[in-house]
Specification:
Layout: E1 3-9, H1 16-26, H2 30-37, E2 45-54, E3 57-66, E4 83-87, H3 117-124, E5 133-135, H4 136-144, H5 150-171, E6 179-181, H6 186-201, E7 206-209, E8 212-214, E9 218-221, E10 224-227, H7 231-240, E11 244-246, H8 256-265, E12 266-269, E13 275-284, E14 295-303, H9 306-309, E15 316-327, H10 332-344, E16 349-356, E17 362-370, H11 375-385, E18 392-400, E19 402-410, E20 413-422, E21 425-431, H12 433-443, H13 447-457
Parallel strand pairs: 1-7, 7-12, 8-11
Antiparallel strand pairs: 1-14, 2-3, 2-4, 5-6, 9-10, 13-14, 15-17, 15-18, 16-17, 19-20, 20-21
Helix pairs in contact: 1-6, 2-6, 4-5, 5-6, 5-7, 5-8, 7-8, 10-11, 12-13
Length: about 450
């Protein structure tokens, strides 16, 4: 059985503009992308694509130009390469230098979690964005009210939800309270929606990726200088259970936008397996890196490996570490404290199960699930905080429903619900606790009634 597969070779990281550039190089039609993006009332901007070379590798450089931004200098395309551009609403403005495609700059002042290299350059040039702000709910409504396909809407909203959850965790806010710059967000909104449009144009292939490689160094943000990876990138990847490794490149390679795309679409992360390359595309970044070309290589082809393609189901897959130890002499209070510490330290789940050990002694099996990158650190925590003398470690491959977040209208108010889809059908629906708890407090109704109302209001089809 052959399966249409897109493999992202992220040896030099990933950003929104590099992803779309690679998709255009694979054959996505620029005019179709522009026409679909016109269905969203984002604001005044225009798109630009240009065939260029980066470190001798030819590919597509894609940019979104915000027409509200002050002029730095007129854009001068290289006449030796094919190049084209198109205008969104408000055509006629001068071309601008490319804006960053990191979602970091979506946040209102005081809430940024890091600037990409392009944003740092813009700060040096004195760029300022309007202070009007959109929050996550407003961006979601913007997408919902558009004429985009249901699939593109669902995926774009899910990506922004991942960003909002990450930023909310960093700054102590609920996802709904995370605000985004209205004008500064134009390029990032276009990148996110445009990436979803590109995948739809390619036939919604399964997306696999290489292991995530990030650089080193520092970025400037509203809170000062922070090391790479940025806080948002780490939160987004960590929440999905995606491990990240750093290389010697002294720059940010994975932007929060790129991390969110990987978290939403990537099914597994590792070397190519049984992939027959039919097309190869290259999306070019802005910077000239020190140790590797600033290029995203995307491979579109078929997977003949039964381990990859032998199932008709479209669930997501990843690998987690399973840490286990048998304890027959641990104080229950120590055990409870460890559970809290492990979850706070990044464990995906922690639980203990009653067992019987040798000499018929009652005991517990303590289990920790975590990303493979966190396994050593959490193993150390386990042996320091409990009575364990050793820890068993195994790797487990997970199959997960594709997740989507929607808002349903109940008699008491709006509630956010997480849907799990398998081959496009809803097979699980779970009201979000924080959303239900907040509405229960506001309405004075029991929490269980809010849950029940949310379940009744959740569509089971489509």
């Amino acid at each position: 059985m052959n399966s249409k597969t897109l493999y992202l070779d992220i040896f030099s990281g990933i950003s929104g503009d590099m992803f779309i550039g690679a998709m255009l190089d694979l054959g996505v039609k620029f005019d179709l992308l522009e026409a679909e993006l016109r269905k969203v009332n984002v604001g005044h901007y225009h798109l630009h694509q240009q065939r260029k070379a980066k470190s001798g590798i030819e590919g597509v450089k894609f940019d979104v130009h915000d027409e509200h931004a002050p002029d730095e200098a007129a854009h001068q395309p290289d006449d030796s390469h094919e190049h084209g551009h198109s205008h969104g609403p408000g055509a006629g403005h001068a071309h601008q230098h490319a804006h960053s495609h990191s979602l970091s700059h979506l946040l209102a002042p005081g809430s940024s979690s890091g600037l990409s290299h392009a944003e740092e350059s813009h700060s040096e040039h004195g760029h300022h964005h309007h202070e009007d702000a959109r929050n996550y709910a407003a961006i979601r409504r913007l997408i919902e009210d558009s004429a985009l396909s249901d699939w593109v809407k669902a995926k774009a909203i899910a990506i922004f939800h991942r960003i909002a959850v990450a930023e909310g965790k960093i700054h102590g806010h609920s996802p709904e309270e995370v605000h985004f710059h209205e004008v500064g967000a134009i390029d990032s909104i276009v990148d996110v929606i445009g990436a979803c449009i590109c995948l739809e144009q390619l036939g919604k292939p399964r997306v696999l990726a290489a292991t995530v490689t990030e650089g080193t160094g520092w970025v400037n943000c509203a809170h000062g200088r922070f090391p790479v990876p940025t806080m948002a990138t780490l939160e987004i990847l960590g929440a999905r259970g995606i491990a990240v490794s750093q290389c010697e490149e002294p720059h940010e390679l994975v932007t929060p936008t790129g991390a969110a795309l990987l978290a939403e679409f990537g099914e597994s992360f590792g070397p190519m397996r049984g992939l027959l390359a039919e097309k190869v595309g290259y999306g070019l970044g802005t910077r000239d890196n020190h140790t590797r070309p600033n290029v995203l290589r995307a491979v579109l082809g078929r997977t003949d490996d039964p381990a990859v393609s032998g199932r008709p189901l479209d669930w997501e897959t990843d690998t987690v570490a399973v840490l286990e130890t048998n304890l027959d002499d641990v104080n229950p209070e120590v055990l409870g404290a460890f559970v809290e510490k492990a979850l706070a330290a990044g464990a995906l789940d922690v639980f203990h199960t009653p067992i019987q050990m040798k000499k018929n002694r009652p005991a517990v099996l303590l289990t920790v699930l975590c990303s493979e990158g966190d396994a050593d650190r959490l193993t150390e925590l386990l042996v320091r905080e409990t009575t364990a003398f050793g820890v068993r470690r195994t790797a487990a491959t997970r199959r997960k429903l594709r997740r989507e977040f929607i808002t349903v209208n109940t008699p008491a108010g709006m509630v956010e619900v997480k849907l799990g889809r398998l081959n496009g059908k809803v097979v699980q629906a779970a009201p979000e606790y924080e959303s239900c708890r907040k509405l229960a407090e506001e309405s004075g109704l029991p929490l269980k009634e809010i849950y029940a109302a949310a379940v009744r209001a959740t569509p089971t089809e489509g």
